[in-house]
Amino acid sequence: MPKVTIDGIQYEFNPGETIIEVASRNGVEIPHYCWHPRLSVSGNCRMCLVEVEKMPKLVIACATQAMDGMVVHTKSEKAVKGREHVMEFLLINHPLDCPICDEAGECALQDYAYRYGTGYSRFIEEKNHKPKRVKLGPYVMFDAERCISCSRCIRFSKEIAKADQLTFVQRGDRVTIETFPGKEFDNPYSLNVVDICPVGALTNIDFRFKARVWEMSATKSICPGCARGCNIDIWVRNNEILRLTPRFNEKVNDYWMCDHGRINCFKFVNADDRIDGPFVKKESQLVLVNWDEAVSRAVSELKRFKGNEFAVIASPFATLEDNYALLKFSKQILKTNNIFFIPHIKPGDQDDILIREDKTPNSTGLRLLGIDVSKNDLSLETLDEKINSKSIKCLIVVEDDPIAVKPELKNAIQNLDLLIVFATNKNKTTQYADILFPAATYAEKNGVFVNFQGFVQRIRPAVATIDVDRSLDGLAQSRWDKFGTEFDKWARGRKVNARSDWKIISQIANALGGKFDYDTSEDVFIEITQNVKELANLDYETIGELGYQIKSSKLIEEKILV
Ligand code: SF4
Ligand code: SF4
User: Which of 87, 195, 389, 400 is deepest in the core (most CB within 10 A)?
Assistant: First the structure.
């Protein structure tokens, strides 16, 4: 294999690779703004200048192919001076408004100015002023003065989002970004340009001025917006989620996520309509009670029914652990196989980038457990008829809203003898519950989702519920460190009185004579791995940060995996 020497160390490379690609693959930093591993090379920022022996001038590492025997210096005096000059040029017209810039703290211009700049400017003339608040589209604001004309946003839109909506206009120091006349920068992936803009020129209108980045904690999680399960970071300050950003996972979402996920998949966690504690119906009103009263009411009410008088709606929005506990509860305690889930498919709302028409994060996980859309002739289609004929008398709904999906179900639901609902937020079904349990959202618990490709992926608590705080007292610190290291333990702000479904179900099951002996969600997961052969020998550590892919031709044949 051919070899190139960078800063005295030899690296093998594949013919066709550029110097920056070889360096980046081997962990050698060559500063850059316009180069991005997934975009075409534009070579316009000049920040990646390096010295190559036997070449008369500095070359840009992003556009120079590595050659066998080539000797590259990234830290020689000539390379360092070259970078200093580039930094000086880039900063000539820059407004230096870091104190009011959203990018401050995660800005490549700031970082490189410290690391590769001279610390002063010889430019004393008036800076070139440009518009500072240009709304390019529904989600993205542009500050033209901060733009360093790297063209990443233009190339992303054209090459990745397949929406050629941005362009440069003017020349020299007047150059700026514009949309085509009368058009908006509006596509399902527009906010990714905010992530890849190396400076604060493009900001997320939804997040603008909400927090300085160093005030927030970032927790590794999974977007619950569709079956892709994009890897994300959940950014939290004072126990409130302020933004989601994509987390690199080459095999699932690469560097990206869609705008829908980014904008819509956290606000319900902070919302005022959260179910904030357990409720039971007293004199036709849902009344807030304590956990013991709600659980004992559920236990005594459930004893009134038997076997197939129960129907249970599982949830593709809830974790594998939640659904496993529910399945075990249905089979062992309620003694019914009447368990199914409601698919949430938006036909046609899918592309070949990320977005999937299955708008749930875990339907594959449910199928893996053996929970299907329809069981024993029972599905959302037949449920009302079975309730009206009194063959189903008690319905348990976990993290779903059957009345929203099928409004005609409203009358049948009111004919039930008992409706128990587990919900994160108020919805069309919760108002009819006889017992309503507050479910923790994906951002408040540990657990696992399985995406449509069979990637088993971890979610982790990013915000605290009252229950998480209490359980912390009873957990050894080492155990806590294992299960919740990135969790903002000292979170202030509002805490919702909610619990993971598996935990609530286990408490009810144990009161009914079951053996649901779990302290943590990983205890539930370990039991799942003993029962589902595709997950054998997995634990949370093995799943890791980038997930574990189930490979099973049988599951592909059964169309459980694609
Ligand atoms: S707006 Fe940002 S990404 Fe786009 S050209 Fe300017 S600096 Fe580059
Ligand atoms: S593609 Fe799906 S999983 Fe990814 S960010 Fe969008 S909604 Fe979330």
Answer: 400
Ligand 1: atom nearest CA of 142 is: 1
User: Measuring from atom 2 of ligand 2, which residue has the nearest CA?
Assistant: 226
In the numeric block, the tokens 């192919």 are attached to: 65
Cα–Cα nearest to 302, from 124, 401, 437: 437
Give me the CATH number covering residue 63.
3.10.20.740
- How much distance in Å is there from the Cα of 216 to the middle of ligand 1? 25
Let me know whether 284 and 243 are in one domain. no
Ligand closest to Cα of 151 equals 1
Q: Is 152 in the pocket of ligand 1 (CB under 6 A)?
A: yes
Residues 441 and 530 placed together within one structural domain of the fold: yes
Q: Are residues 421 and 522 in the same domain?
A: yes
Q: What are the pLDDT tens digits along the chain (562 aa)?
A: 999 999 999 999 999 999 999 999 999 999 999 999 999 999 999 999 999 999 999 999 999 999 999 999 999 999 999 999 999 999 999 999 999 999 999 999 999 999 999 988 899 999 999 999 999 999 999 999 999 999 999 999 999 999 999 999 999 999 999 999 999 999 999 999 999 999 999 999 999 999 999 989 899 999 999 999 999 999 999 889 999 999 999 999 999 999 999 999 999 999 999 999 999 999 999 999 999 999 999 999 999 999 999 999 999 999 999 999 999 999 999 999 999 999 999 999 999 999 999 999 999 999 999 999 998 789 999 999 999 999 999 999 999 999 999 999 999 999 999 999 999 999 999 999 999 999 999 999 999 999 999 999 999 999 888 875 444 444 444 444 444 444 444 556 788 999 999 999 999 999 999 999 999 999 999 999 999 999 999 999 999 999 999 987 777 777 777 7
Closest C-alpha residue for ligand 2 atom 1: 355
Residue of 407, 438, 437 whose CA lies nearest to 419: 437
Assess whether the C-beta atom of 257 lies below 6 angstroms from ligand 2.
yes
Residue 299 included in any domain: yes
Q: Are residues 340 and 391 in the same domain?
A: yes
Q: Are residues 30 and 146 in the same domain?
A: no
Do 321 and 431 sit in the same domain of this protein?
yes
Domain that holds residue 197: 98-108+118-270
**Binding site membership of 258 for ligand 2 (Cβ less than 6 Å):** yes
Q: What is the DSSP letter of 77?
A: H
295 Cβ inside 6 Å of ligand 1: no
* 312 in the same domain as 369: yes
Q: How far is CA 257 from the centre of its chain?
A: 8
Check if 402 has its Cβ closer than 6 Å to any atom of ligand 2: no
Distance of CA 84 to the CA centre of its chain: 38
Residue nearest to atom 6 of ligand 1 (CA): 147
Number of domains, the chain: 3
Residue 225 CA, closest ligand 2 atom number? 7
User: How many CA atoms lie within 13 Å of 267's alpha carbon, on the beta-carbon side?
Assistant: 7
Give the residue from 270, 302, 333 where a domain finishes: 270
